[in-house]
Amino acid sequence: MAQTDKRIRWFHYSTEDAKAAQAELDQLAAEGWELAELGLEEATFRPASSPRPCWVEPARWRSMGRKDTERRADYLELCDEAGWDLLDESGGLWFFQAKPGTDPAPVQTDGTVEWTSVWKKILFNQAFNLLFLGIFWTLHFWVQFVWKGFFLWEPLLSNTALGATVLFQVLLLAELIYGAYLLSYRRRCRRAVAAGESFPVPGRWGARLRGVSKLGAGAVLVGAFLLLLTGVGEGQAEYLKDHAGYTRQRRSVFAEQWTYRQFQSHGSLWVESYTCRFSWLAELICGDLLALEGDGEALEKDLHYHAPVTPAPAELGFDRAWTYHDGELSGLILQNGTQVVRIEAPDIDLTNPDILIELRQRILKLTE
Q1: 89 in the Ramachandran plot: left (φ > 0), alpha (ψ -120 to 50) or beta?
Q2: What is the maximum alpha-carbon separation in the chain?
Q3: Structure pTM?
Q4: Residue 29's CB: how many other CB atoms inside 10 A?
Q5: Residue 233: its pLDDT value, please?
């Protein structure tokens, strides 16, 4: 059977997987295939009776500074004199190929020197950068989220916000796992060198997945951005002319939130309703709403213009209920099953059964 004139393979490795790339090139050379060209994510091989050997190692001195430029030029010149041509630089790796008609010694022949001059710093820097970015942005996200007065359950009220948050956290978690893997691989390399053994070779499929990890991270970021775009305008307030107030509604797989506010000269009517799918979420929301009433700064941010109060338990026929007062303002927080409601109104006794029936009918009418 005639042999094909070329072979194209998925071939893209990250810096830490240089040994995996080397192993694949050596295997293909043993099968009679010579590296011809490197693409973005693939490589082209051609058949050869005596394939020219290749050498792969992390690229160094990559900055545009004078010292790095000179060191890079000197190193590549030494490799050229030793019989190695720089075929390409891809994914942070140098791909050398033996000059035609030569069989030079490997670029690195001493494991200790290779560890000290090549791998030690590179693996540490990569692991540090990934772990720093993952930890920093995770802490930054949640600290800012809580610092700005958001509740941890608020993303659960919007499918788009929930999806974007999950994607972002998955990306940060992947960064942390990747960084931990690099530290583990660095430790294995150090132990192998100390024992006089060859460098450990990462598994091929794991290395290939890491090679496209940047594309995957980019796809996750694009997905999160598109989710946020689809959610533009979600939960915006709508003016109800017949009721002289504003309403806002949000739905998600976890809960449905409905808010109504009617501004009056002597106060405002505020109604919030959360219909949850899970009892734990209802309890979490109820607990945070109760805590909010005692936090003056949080009340101001949330546009509740009354002094901090301590809600008192009340028996009103619901599973749980609390009332509070500030001057002429009356407030009620209740939980009934998986529904949580908060009501604030001026000059109204929210413990009066007739008032509660009227409010319930009014809420039902507004949410129709």
Answers
A1: beta
A2: 100
A3: 0.75
A4: 18
A5: 60
Contact between 365 and 342 (Cβ < 8 Å): no
Question: What is the identity of the amino acid at 249?
Answer: Q
| Rounded Cα–Cα distance for residues 257 and 332 (Å) | 17
CA distance 103 to 139: 53
Neighbours of 243 (CB within 10 A): 14
Which residues, in sequence order, are bridge partners of residue 282?
A: none
In this structure, the number of other CB atoms found within 10 A of the CB of residue 38 comes to 18
Cα 301 from Cα 294, distance rounded (Å)? 13
Separation between Cα atoms, residue 166 and residue 307, nearest integer Å: 36
Residue 48 DSSP symbol = -
Structure tokens at 336: 């009934």
Amino acid at 32: G
Asked if 351 and 316 touch (Cβ cutoff 8 Å), the reply is: yes
Q: CA torsion sign, 13 to 16 to 17 to 22? A: positive
Q: Provide CB contacts within 8 A for 99, sequence distance 6+.
A: 52, 83, 84, 85
**Can you give the C-alpha Rg of the chain in angstroms?**
32
For residue 92, give the nearest of 18, 165, 150 by alpha carbon: 18
Q: Where are the beta strands (DSSP E) in the chain?
A: 7-10, 33-38, 42-47, 54-58, 84-90, 93-98, 238-240, 245-251, 255-264, 267-276, 312-313, 320-326, 329-336, 339-346
Question: Measured between alpha carbons, how far is residue 221 from residues 167, 179, 216, 218, 354 in Å?
Answer: 8, 19, 9, 5, 53
- For residue 1, name the pLDDT band (cuts at 50, 70, 90): very low
DSSP 97-124: EEPTT--PPPS---HHHHIIIIIHHHHH
Tokens 């942390």 belong to 176
Q: Which of 326, 304, 327, 317 is nearest to 353 (CA)?
A: 317
Per-residue pLDDT tens over the stretch 294-308: 888 888 777 777 889
Which one, of 339, 331, 337, lies nearest residue 305 by Cα?
331
Euclidean distance between CA atoms 277 and 213, whole angstroms: 36
If you search the block for the tokens 């390399």, which residue do you land on? 189
